[in-house]
Amino acid sequence: MENKILKISLLSSLICLSLYSYSDDYFDPSMLESQLGVDTSQIDLSQFSKSNAVLAGEYRVQVELNRNLLGDKTITYAENKAGEIVPVFTPELLEEWGVNVKVIPNLSKLEPNTKITNITDYIKDATVYSDVSQLTLRVTIPQIAMLNKAEGYIEPELLDDGIPALFFNYFLSGNKNRNDSSYSGTKKSNSSFVSLNAGMNLGAWRLRSNMSYSRNSGDYGSSSSTNFNNTYLMRTLYSIRSTFNVGEISTGNEVFDSIPFKGMKLASNEEMLPSSQRGFAPEVNGIAQSNAKVTIRQNGYVVYQTYVAPGAFTLKDVYATGNAGDLDVTITEEDGTEKTFTIAFSSLPVMLRPGGYKYETSVGRYDGGNTIDSKEADFFLGSFIYGLPTNSTLYGGLLMAKNYFSAAAGVGVSLGSFGALSTDITHASANMGGELGDKVGQSFRIRYSKSMTTTGTSIDLTALRYSSRSYFSFADFNNYDCRLKEGVAPWLNQRQRSSFTTSISQSLGGYGSIFLSGSISDYWDINREVRQVAVGYNGSFKRINYSIRYSIDRIKDQTSWPENRQLSLSISVPFSVFSNSEMARNMSSSYMFTQDNNNRASHQLGVHGSFLDGKLGYGISQGYENKGVGNSGAINASYSGSKSNISAGYNYNKDSQGINASASGGVLIHSGGILMGQTMGSSIGVIEAEGAKGTKLNNQDTVINGQGYALYPHLSSYSANTINMNVNSLPNDVMLNETSKTVYPTAGSVVKVKFDTKLGYQVIMTLKRADNSVIPFGAIATLVEQDSKEANTGIVGDNNQLFMSGLPDSSRLDISWGQDKNQKCTVNFSNLSAIPVSETQPIRSVSAICQ
Prior knowledge:
Blueprint: H1 2-19, H2 33-36, E1 57-65, E2 68-79, E3 85-87, H3 91-96, H4 105-108, E4 127-131, E5 136-140, E6 159-160, E7 165-181, E8 185-202, E9 205-218, E10 221-237, E11 242-250, E12 260-268, E13 284-288, E14 292-298, E15 301-308, E16 311-315, E17 327-332, E18 338-343, E19 357-366, E20 378-388, E21 392-401, E22 404-414, E23 420-431, E24 438-452, E25 457-467, H5 474-479, E26 496-507, E27 513-523, E28 529-541, E29 544-554, E30 563-574, H6 582-585, E31 587-596, E32 601-611, E33 616-625, E34 630-640, E35 644-653, E36 656-670, E37 673-677, E38 683-688, E39 709-715, E40 721-724, E41 734-736, E42 740-745, E43 750-754, E44 757-759, E45 761-769, E46 780-784, E47 793-795, E48 801-807, E49 811-816, E50 824-829, E51 844-850
Parallel strand pairs: 1-5, 6-42, 38-43, 45-51
Antiparallel strand pairs: 1-2, 2-3, 4-5, 7-8, 7-36, 8-9, 9-10, 10-11, 11-12, 12-19, 13-16, 14-15, 14-17, 17-18, 19-20, 20-21, 21-22, 22-23, 23-24, 24-25, 25-26, 26-27, 27-28, 28-29, 29-30, 30-31, 31-32, 32-33, 33-34, 34-35, 35-36, 36-37, 38-39, 40-42, 41-44, 45-48, 46-47, 46-49, 49-50
């Protein structure tokens, strides 16, 4: 009985122990013995039992350090002490990536080229992960081990000034109109307009110019005009984070009012700063009990996260997502304990971080465009803005010209939960000559901003300004008593006495939102107050959007600019309310009613929609207006393609009818040819992928053309831009060595992004030996007589099958599986182009003898 109990106990113990046992996956080489034809005891397949495994060697991978992209790097993978294949680091490489090697004892003692296969032996809590499928290496290193570089910092050597190129954005429009009047008979008129925004790049220099052409013709003759403006030469000076401009440019508007002029300007460029140091954000101070994680949120979103050492810490590179919204700071200790506090935050455009600065120096001649002529005075302007440690900013400047002098000084202060406030004074003295003589006066300005996320209230920017009677701005000094150009509002050449501008919005939660924006200005020499006001309410109900708006502005009459007050109501109803079909989801109807202070009322009903994933849009509308105006209507269509945007329309009312059309896009000329595409931004990409005609770029309506190029119209300056290729759209005879690239363009650059392609056929070869012997599993096939610098190789798989890509129509493959001279053979192939393929079977199949 005791033996029986002992056996049962022993069996129970073994069962229990088995529940806690585990093992790795294991590939048994003996199962492949019939295919290998070699001693299986010499084969180690343990590496392939691990997930995400990689073979030793060099790889071109995209490196991501603490979630910041460092670009494509060549990384060596080798075996560590545990027998794992891991990336190899060196102290020199880590220092290049921003690791503070000199203060880490274990690292500082090593030679710069010492190979490191286990980084955690040197940097505590560091992690390394290789994503083989994405060719990405992700490294995280605690902030305490990093150099004091701001988040978003970009190494200067990564910045790309681009290639030489000539390009322009164009906009073309035309209109034909026919007017039938019982008083004046039939009149026909035509108009056309062309606008070109052109640029040329050479190294770090950028030349820019705008040209416009307009022509009007009709029964009473024709007229045309051509204008060139805003022609200037620019280059960036990254070493001093500044931009130099010469030509037709304008001064900044943070200290003095913006001045259009012809001359030179050297000014700091905030774009060149790391993203975390642009604009204003307060310093964050706290105390950590351990190596703690600090997380900062604004308006519910994480905007900053880092690791700090035990003790007091100060964070100066916090990136705020807007000009307002309190910062919630959470300190997470190593034991999981969390401490939270809030820093009230509001900012104005003029404000900078503690220690931050901006400057401008401009020399030139006034070039205002509202008057026929002006004094065109030569002047010098200098301004400086500096962020103080007390969450405040000082700013000031000087403006000097013959017979004119002006000085400005001000301060901006973050009031925490009460918003942000700035106030400044500008003193000016002007010798106006004649009866006016010398004029000395001052202008005072107060600006305020606040966003209260808890109540949904936002006061974006409110400004109040008052100028004394004897104050003359630099524009007043140049344009006083000059004749205005035709069509310019008369008050634009008057000396302003006071002005008030504001923009306020209030969220009502699920009940919509209300808004108010406007400005009120009056002038010293005319008895006129100019008001521009808009107040309204926006709401929705079951996807039906509606709004009501009251506005005050001015309209041009034949002899005056009377005030126009208008009440409008609009409703938009998506057809998806009635049906979930694809057509209904892309259609909507709208209704608008307006009435002004002259009791002129109008009604307009329309239907709008799109096809082809939004590329083709259309609209039909019908309207009615009282006061004898009667019916009106319009129909229009637009198409947004990879090369350009085009639109056309027809409209009519009681007395006239007309047709119109427009087109816009961009054209770029570079060493590889001419590219056409959408309207381009400041920085542009030229994508090169030889032989990849028709391949699409992800997230862009752009495809590679027949010459192997594509135009990428928008890149962000001084930021990481990742460009991905859609491998599913690649031609059957093309493969990519890498599917994504990261570039860092400077302002205004045209960056070439080259994807290396492997051209040739994709083939599955079923191999045979002349003596009917077996080619071992794992044998290496190498293409010979190829032009590529990189070897084109493949591995013989099961059933003597070999897959190769990038093969020419005819060539030779050398196949080897050992060191012995008898352990190799050669395959000659030809006429691969004659083998039929299809969309469902794009890979060619062929049998070949290896001799």
